[in-house]
Amino acid sequence: MSKVLRGLGRIAGSALGFASLIPGPQQPFVSAAAIGLGLLGSIGGKGKGSKQFEQLQQIAELLKRPPPLSQTVRGGTSPRILAFGRVASSGVSIARENTPNQVQYLEALYLQEGPIDGLDALICDDEFVPLTNNYLGASYEFFWPTTGRKQYPGGLGPLSAYIQIDIASGTAQGKCSPLFSAEADYGSAFYAVDPAWKPFWDRTHLGKGCTILYTVARSTTNPADRLIIYPNGFPAYSAIWRAATVYDPRDPGQRFSQDSFDIYNPDQSWKWSENPALCAAYYVSYLISQNLTAMTGVDWESIGAAANDCDALSPKRRNGFNGGKISSEPFARISASIELDMEPRDVLAKFMESCDGEWGVDQYGRFTMWVRKWEEPAIVFTGADISDFVEEFGPSSNDEINYVHSTYVEPRQNFQRVETAIFRDEKSAGEIGRRTGAYPYEWVQSPDQAYRLTARRVKRSNGRRRISCALGPRALTALKQRVVGFDAPEFGLVGTFRVEDLRPADASLVNWQGEFVEIAEDAYVDAVLPEDPIYGLALVNQPSIATPTYLLPSARRTGSAVGVAQLSLDIKNNIPDQSGPTGNIPTGNTLNQDPTLQLDGRYSTDGGTNWLNFDVLISAMIMQTPELPRESVVTMQARFVASNGAAGSYSSSVTATIP
After folding, report:
1. Residue 246 and residue 282 in contact, taking contact as beta carbons nearer than 8 Å
2. DSSP H or E segment with residue 69
3. Is the whole-model pTM more than 0.70?
4. Most CB atoms within 10 A, among 141, 317, 442, 559?
């Protein structure tokens, strides 16, 4: 239903094809596409629909899902991939050979373009492979399992079966892996050379710009034992790694130059991040460096603000962490794998859907971004500003959905796509009956994040009021505003509206035409996940839960007299770094035995007499206290918790002082 109210006179529509005359960070030339899904409509009395149609809708969405991450793509030419956050993938097999007597299996897996921040875990035939290089010392880059079925009984002798890996970082120079190269003599140390086979990988195979995981899996000398070690015949690998380092404009210690931007030689001051705003800005910087966009740069001020919104704490319900109580996590994090032949607008749309964001281009041609949030209008129009308007209520009956299934990638389930709790809009369901839909979040790894993103989308879509309005010269003051207010009770038009489009109707700048959508504050309140969808699940033959080691305590100021303490796992001391040998790699990294474990912990401000649980999980490896007074000495401990509720022992205490 819609109504038309006419005022003093009608202003003709404009043929000018731009969103605003003087766009800026708050009013873009091009905004992100409107959120929505085309779903099957329902039939039946009063729009209640039928179970059959609901089932058809769910089947239609399931058919759209991509294949599982455990699938390895084979090919001599790999797709070019940019990756962000913590990524789990089987990669692209660009070389696969076995020696004539099947003693060795060699494989090279392309992971991504450019260097990575580090490898978290290697999985072979669905077994987690703990990696160490303690045996060879600091001058080597090879790793093999310390425990598990992949090491044949008999130790590291002639009958041993083990895996060696070499990580070639994706630099512009590339690297010839000694594992595959005839130029390196590693046989005497590794028992890895089969006399009947000669290495085939020479200096022409440098893999320039590519991060490649080289693997050599050694079987036993007895062919009858081969399938005991590798039941799939040829080992099937997957890896979990921390992808690109990115620039953060909020950190004064980091540097950035668009003129020298190069994904193969990132600035050494950049850091690894899962923040969608920082990763999106990196991607746009890549597009600019390759002349793939007309944008001239990045508005880093807007990126910093959007990054702060992504870091803002939201409610979290996670089994194991904080005893399963409501705690907190950053509003948005991503894990993204982007093929470089993807349409850039589609890629940016995925960035935005992962953090409820919008993007645009300002008056200087720079990329801008913001995360949707409630804002009080600075400009309020009255009846005197309105010539006429058309008012429409809500989406069409076939577009409104209120019973929404959301899928995300679950690290606790081997990084498979699973479903979080169903979001129900009871108000809408009571009016039109149940309408089922689905939102897939391919880059989200938190059930809480997927649930709150869905809640926001549904609340904004259902029951909204849209107006097309002819305005007078005061509309000029609304340029660069994301929201405006209307206070025209004589027209029944009162509320806060999102600016969808605002443009001059003629060259005089006296007459304007605008498109506005009503918004409510509750659409930006983060919904709380009713329950964690992962409970009571554990690995088959799950190893014992070890105690975290190599912990990093830290503290920072957050106000004039307060600050927070953080406790994180020193991941770079627990795994091989991509840049080369890193010395003796400790074997106590439980994540290399089971990367599905969760970090949990407690803190004390009285030296350990009274303990409180951490209630903020910044990322999978970082916990944070609430704000504490300056000069507080915070004692902290960490432990690992499995998804079935089993917990390991607390670590030794470490301390940090609030500055």
Report:
1. yes
2. none
3. yes
4. 141
